[in-house]
Inverse folding.
């Protein structure tokens, strides 16, 4: 039976309460009659023989590219870069897609007699991965072959000797990327596309770039002009990356791009209720949900976090394509949209969403308030094509505990950003103008980024810029069940219950507003007509 | 005269100490060494002495420390019992040709006040706060009015002061402004003792009265590039910002705040907590005086920097290894004297009189109490920040209608009206 497409439910009297994610927990909320609930598609079938699909993709490249086997030769310098810990979400069950693709590439390289091979985790300004995380992504065979010999690198965006400046785009953007990658005879990039923002020229132009380069597209202005940054053709973020990508190509960097897409089989069977629509829950689903919720209510937050972070997703690959960057990415987007796109008619006054425990930047970490804002107002809000789900001046209601808590190793500059910057201003443009330079060049943050497991000092700024378009667009943001002080620090309004939040929203959008709830994750991309 | 008096009753000091340790500062006031009494007025020690009728008299941190039995034993030989506390005093002259004049009392009992000649080296240099003769001369020991058995103090309706201790209060200052002159002088002296070079980054730890006034003095007399302060309570944070702090953080956040301000490296634990800054602020003013605050100061001062102890410390257990290894200067600052400014030398009290007027520092006076509600007053002062207050004062103007009338008559009408407005606000 083919998977059912995404679905927009209109809530009526018989509609059961709707499941809202709420961090490491859930809320069961009764939405007003007439509200819409947007459900994602059911998972499409994964490729049955993925290893064969990989081999096929490598030998049948898209665009102006030769097959991988013809690009490999003895004595060459080969670099394989791969997406970091931020993808996929949750971390997938072993074997990870990256492991399977990289093993295939290495087999080809070995066959061609290539012996100068380096693997690079494309961190951009993200934290370094731990050995366990690298082992999980690459598999033990690859990790044990490369890491002990110093051939498994993590991109260092602050290493002057490890970077090379390739030039400036015609818009005056510095293009500075990893020297090893740029000076290799071939750079193979292995990507995972979880959302449409990922991949394309962004893989190299951001993932292997320096702060000096990334700052040109990761800024308030670019994000305010991306409608949305999940829609490549209407995204200033991507337009800038594409300019840089073309310059990288023109500079002689030969890239063989390998992109993959995954289905929405996001949660393991014990969380099967998360994959279903509430009125279709079986007895086992109901029992599973109530047992999970009851046990979570008695579980200390720290332990609950550990439990959720240990979830390994059964994501199945739905496509793999390789070759020239732009041709590959166009095909990837088709495959991503095939799974994620849901048609929605018209905008709403009030958009509601429940945020889960994880976003790309808190894998094995804490979802701090800035990341809550980024996930809700950055990622979820921007998962639209056409026009935003909520009208201009509308209200976004987010459900998340939003604890005033930070991972001091992973997010040191976030703590300062929250204490100092947001207590001064929440305007992304002002934030950038007054504080970005100091944080970006702070030697302690740079030291921690390079030697510990810290996100770069500038990273919380990017998370805030991610919200820039949304903050401009909305009349108010209300967070249900959050730490009130933390919510207020970000300029949002706290509410105890969804009912309270809906009443507060009426102060902004008027009485009897239209309400739409996006029921994710699993993720969906709203095609709003 | 009616006065609050402290007697040398060891068991009462011990009881107050125990109560303070268990239930917090001020909680032992009922069982401590302070009592309300009718005493014989102090005699005028000489012709240059004047009788002063206090109007307002502040409750200072050092007073609280004394009443809690927490003062260092160092002071034992520098006070004489029984004494009437109160060294932050605005009053009216009740004797001599200037009778009726409003004055503030500069309480240090230095060589001139004690009739000692020649002056000690400190007094000769204008550093009266560091007088070497505070236990000698015409008076019994006492480092200040308010700690000497011969002078009485501000927590009474009568005290005596040497002419050299008296500063006339300008008409435009309210009584509340005037009672802030003494602590403001301390703050100015401290700010200037820090030797802040223009462009330096400075930290003020603590935002009680002394901390807030130190912030004001630093902002007025020095040119730091950044002034970071710590404050526990909202009222303190608000005043710290108003008086010139660039940023005000909770005490627990000071390490992180100084780190980001100075962009220094830091050593952190495996869990990510900042353990020690590699660099730090140029000058740190500790306006608390506890082991914790001094330790905090040591953690956030840069190598070769300076820590200025403004708050009164006592017996303290400290790890001085960083002081030694980082060649940090630890500077004590006490009281006032003569300040040497680029534009010339002036008495600290004169500078303070100017500053309280300019900044209307009387607004820091949050509560007035009559003497007979002293227990309540002391408890309030001990928990001022938590209760949304800064300075708590005894209001002697309400003590006795007879002398109050005298005081009112001696004061211009406008000022009386202004005081009335302040009372109404309080």
């Amino acid at each position: 039976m083919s998977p059912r497409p995404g679905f927009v439910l209109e809530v009526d009297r018989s509609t059961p309460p709707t499941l809202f994610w709420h961090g490491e927990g859930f809320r069961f909320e009764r939405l007003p009659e007439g509200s819409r609930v947007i459900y994602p598609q059911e998972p499409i079938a994964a490729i049955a023989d993925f290893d064969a699909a990989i081999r096929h993709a490598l030998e049948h490249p898209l665009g102006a590219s030769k097959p991988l086997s013809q690009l490999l030769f003895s004595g060459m310098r080969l670099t394989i870069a791969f997406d970091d810990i931020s993808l996929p979400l949750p971390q997938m069950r072993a074997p990870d897609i990256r492991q399977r693709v990289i093993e295939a590439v290495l087999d080809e390289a070995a066959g061609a007699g290539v012996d100068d091979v380096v693997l690079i985790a494309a961190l951009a300004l993200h934290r370094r991965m731990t050995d366990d995380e690298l082992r999980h992504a690459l598999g033990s065979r690859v990790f044990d072959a490369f890491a002990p010999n110093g051939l498994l690198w993590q991109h260092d965006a602050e290493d002057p000797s490890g970077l090379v400046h390739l030039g400036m785009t015609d818009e005056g953007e510095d293009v500075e990327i990893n020297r090893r990658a740029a000076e290799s005879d071939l750079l193979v990039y292995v990507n995972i596309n979880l959302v449409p923002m990922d991949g394309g020229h962004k893989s190299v132009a951001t993932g292997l770039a320096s702060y000096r380069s990334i700052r040109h597209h990761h800024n308030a202005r670019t994000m305010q002009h991306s409608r949305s940054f999940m829609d490549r053709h209407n995204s200033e973020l991507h337009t800038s990356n594409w300019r840089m990508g073309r310059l990288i190509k023109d500079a002689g960097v030969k890239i063989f791009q390998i992109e993959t897409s995954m289905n929405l089989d996001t949660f393991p069977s014990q969380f099967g209720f998360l994959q279903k629509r509430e009125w279709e829950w079986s007895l086992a689903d109901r029992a599973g949900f109530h047992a999970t919720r009851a046990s979570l209510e008695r579980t200390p937050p720290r332990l609950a976090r550990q439990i959720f972070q240990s979830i390994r997703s059964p994501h199945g690959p739905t496509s793999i394509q390789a070759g020239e960057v732009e041709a590959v990415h166009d095909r990837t987007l088709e495959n991503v949209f095939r799974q994620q796109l849901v048609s929605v008619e018209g905008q709403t006054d009030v958009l509601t969403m429940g945020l889960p425990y994880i976003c790309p930047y808190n894998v094995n970490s804490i979802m701090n308030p800035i990341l809550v804002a980024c996930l809700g107002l950055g990622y979820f809000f921007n998962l639209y094509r056409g026009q935003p789900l909520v009208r201009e001046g509308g209200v976004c209601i987010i459900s998340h505990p939003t604890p005033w808590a930070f991972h001091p190793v992973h997010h040191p500059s976030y703590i300062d950003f929250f204490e100092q910057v947001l207590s001064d201003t929440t305007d992304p443009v002002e934030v950038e103008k007054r504080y970005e330079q100091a944080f970006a060049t702070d030697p302690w943050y740079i030291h921690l980024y390079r030697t510990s497991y810290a996100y770069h000092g500038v990273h919380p700024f990017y998370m805030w810029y991610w919200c820039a378009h949304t903050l401009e667009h909305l009349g108010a943001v209300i967070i249900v069940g959050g730490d009130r002080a933390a919510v207020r620090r970000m300029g949002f309004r706290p509410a105890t219950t969804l009912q309270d939040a809906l009443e507060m929203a009426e102060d902004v959008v008027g009485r009897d507003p239209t309400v739409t709830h996006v029921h994710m994750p699993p993720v969906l991309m709203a095609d709003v007509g | 005269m009616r006065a609050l008096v402290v007697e040398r009753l060891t068991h009462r000091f011990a009881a107050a100490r125990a109560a303070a340790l268990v239930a917090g500062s001020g909680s032992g006031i009922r069982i401590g060494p302070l009592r309300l009494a009718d005493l014989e007025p102090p005699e005028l020690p000489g012709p240059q002495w004047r009788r002063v009728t206090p109007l307002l008299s502040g409750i200072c941190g050092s007073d609280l420390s004394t009443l809690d039995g927490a003062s260092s034993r160092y002071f034992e030989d520098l006070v004489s019992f029984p004494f009437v506390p109160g060294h932050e005093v605005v009053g009216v002259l009740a004797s001599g040709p200037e009778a009726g004049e409003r004055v503030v009392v500069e309480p240090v009992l230095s060589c001139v006040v004690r009739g000692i000649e020649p002056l000690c080296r400190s007094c000769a240099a204008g550093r009266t706060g560091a007088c070497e003769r505070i236990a000698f001369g015409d008076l019994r020991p006492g480092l200040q009015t308010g700690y000497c058995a011969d002078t009485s103090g501000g927590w009474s309706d009568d005290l005596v002061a040497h002419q050299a201790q008296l500063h006339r209060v300008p008409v435009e200052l309210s009584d509340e402004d005037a009672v802030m002159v003494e602590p403001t002088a301390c703050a100015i002296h401290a700010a200037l003792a820090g030797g802040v070079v223009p462009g330096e980054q400075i930290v003020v730890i603590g935002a009680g009265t002394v901390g807030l006034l130190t912030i004001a003095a630093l902002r007025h007399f020095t040119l730091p590039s950044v002034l970071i302060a710590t404050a526990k309570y909202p009222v303190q944070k608000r005043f710290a910002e108003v008086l010139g702090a660039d940023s005000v953080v909770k005490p627990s956040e000071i390490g992180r705040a100084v780190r980001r301000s100075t962009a220094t490296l830091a050593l952190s634990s495996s869990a990510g907590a900042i353990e020690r800054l590699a660099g730090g602020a140029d000058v740190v003013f500790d306006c608390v005086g506890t082991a914790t605050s001094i330790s905090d100061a040591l953690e956030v001062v840069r190598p070769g920097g300076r820590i200025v102890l403004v708050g009164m410390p006592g017996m303290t257990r400290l790890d001085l290894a960083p002081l030694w290894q980082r060649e940090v200067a630890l500077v004590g600052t006490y009281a006032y004297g003569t300040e040497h400014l680029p534009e010339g030398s002036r008495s600290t009290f004169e500078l303070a009189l100017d500053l309280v007027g300019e900044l209307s520092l009387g607004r820091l006076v949050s509560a007035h109490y009559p003497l007979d509600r002293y227990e309540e007053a002391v408890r309030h002062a001990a928990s001022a920040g938590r209760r949304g207050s800064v300075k708590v004062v005894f209001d002697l103007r309400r003590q006795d209608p007879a002398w109050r009338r005298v005081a009112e008559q001696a004061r211009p009408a406008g000022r009386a009206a202004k005081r009335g407005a302040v009372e109404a606000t309080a």
Notes: Residues 131-146 of chain A form the longest helix (16 residues). The domain at 7-43+341-528 of chain A is CATH 3.90.226.30 (2-enoyl-CoA Hydratase; Chain A, domain 1). Chain A has a mean pLDDT of 96. The longest strand of chain A covers residues 390-399.
